[in-house]
């Protein structure tokens, strides 16, 4: 697979744009390359919130969410070096794992709000 971040817009949103430092609310499902789901806010029934672009999430999210608009759906292929690298995370994410995410952006809040 690629060693680059791959961004595929499934639905282009029409709402506020995700920018560095924004508090985002999103639903996501994360899978391994073999299709194994390792985490899902959808399955938990609770959207995920984080500040984007400031190192609080994996680099693939910090980079891959930029420019996405509320209401949009996006697929991210996150190569291992932009995910968890050589670290093992939980039972499913082995060292040097590439990750795939399907993300729906629900809300973007910035300091202007």
State the main characteristics.
six-stranded antiparallel β-sheet; globular; 113 residues; 2 helices; 6 strands; single chain; Chitinase A, domain 3; mainly beta
Structure write-up:
The protein is 9% helix and 36% strand. It is mostly beta strands. It has a single domain (6-109), classed as Chitinase A, domain 3 (Roll). Strands 1, 2, 3, 4, 5 and 6 form a six-stranded antiparallel β-sheet that branches. The longest helix is centred in the middle third of the chain and has 6 residues, at 59-64. The radius of gyration is 13 Å and the shape is globular.
Number of domains: 1
Identify low-pLDDT runs. none
- Percent helix, as a range, is under 10%
- Tell me the distance between the termini: 40 Å
- The ordered string of helix (H) and strand (E) elements is EEEHEHEE
By CATH, the topology is Chitinase A, domain 3
> What is the averaged pLDDT score?
95
What's the Cα radius of gyration?
13 Å
Care to give the gist of this entry?
The chain is mainly β.
Helix and strand arrangement:
Layout: E1 6-11, E2 23-32, E3 37-40, H1 41-44, E4 48-51, H2 59-64, E5 73-78, E6 99-109
Antiparallel strand pairs: 1-5, 2-3, 2-4, 2-6, 5-6
């Amino acid at each position: 697979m690629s060693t680059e971040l791959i961004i595929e817009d499934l639905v282009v949103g029409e709402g506020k744009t995700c920018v560095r430092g924004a508090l985002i609310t999103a639903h996501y499902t994360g899978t391994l390359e073999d299709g194994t789901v390792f985490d899902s806010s959808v399955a938990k029934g609770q959207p995920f919130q984080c500040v984007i672009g400031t190192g609080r999430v994996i680099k693939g999210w910090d980079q891959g969410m930029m420019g996405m608009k509320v209401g949009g759906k996006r697929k991210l292929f996150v190569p291992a070096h932009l995910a968890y690298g050589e670290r093992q995370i939980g039972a499913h994410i082995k060292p040097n794992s590439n990750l795939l995410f399907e993300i729906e952006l629900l809300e973007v809040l910035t300091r202007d709000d």
